[in-house]
Amino acid sequence: MDAAKPSEANPRESYLNGRWKEQCHYFEQKAETCQKRFMRLRRWSLLMGISTPILIFVVTIVVTALDAQAVGKPNPYYQLLTLLPIAASAIALGCYQWEELHNYGAQWSKFRMVVERLKGNRELYEHRSGIYEKAPDGKPLSDEDALKTFVRYCEGLIEGNDINYFVLMVDPLRREIA
Asked: Which of 128-132's residues contact partners 24+ apart within 8 Å by CB, and which partners?
């Protein structure tokens, strides 16, 4: 006689340690990646945005001082120095626009929310609370029915996230390109 496979022997453990765990890990990784990208772009945008007026002020003072020293001589540093605030401003604007295009902040929030919902529903399922406590007729849910409800909820959340991702994140990019 063949021994039953673990997934066949215990569907609860199979789902929790397989699909559910993999999806939680996936969404956590996506949230972390988007968070890092969002924060990096925001820091650069903030730093360059603050630097722009400071650079304009410093360049104005330095160019004025150089002009005072070189009366009647062309200033070779003037054009080079004036590029600094322009570059800082362009970097700030570029970082802001890149984040707007890719929506890292929104994706971070969305992926984090999915992870928290998956984890929260696991806790509800484990403690037989909320939708995992009683059937619509008021009777306690059997272990099998509670697991089916849990799987149905989690898979709906995962599928809904996939649909939202393509509608909110991918389609706008395709429309802009087309």
From this structure: none
Beta carbons of 27 and 114 less than 8 angstroms apart:
yes
Q: What SS3 state is found at 127?
A: coil
Encode pLDDT of 66-115 as tens digits.
776 766 666 666 778 889 999 999 999 999 999 999 999 999 999 999 99
- CA atoms in the 13 A half-sphere facing the CB of 122: 16
Q: Quote the number of domains for the chain.
A: 1
d(Cα 20, Cα 118) in Å, to the nearest integer?
8
In a domain, 2, yes or no: no
What pTM was estimated for this model as a whole? 0.75
Let me know if residue 8 belongs to a domain.
no
Q: φ and ψ at 109, to 5 degrees?
A: -60, -45
Residue 176 in any domain: the answer is no
C-beta separation of 92 from 48 below 8 A:
yes
Residue 7 lies in a domain: no
- Cα–Cα dist 147/38, whole Å: 37
Q: Give the count of beta carbons closer than 10 Å to the beta carbon of residue 115.
A: 19
Joined together, the tokens standing for residue 151 give 């799987």
> Residue 19: which domain range?
13-171
Those residues whose C-beta lies under 8 Å from the C-beta of residue 173, and which sit 6 or more positions away, are 101
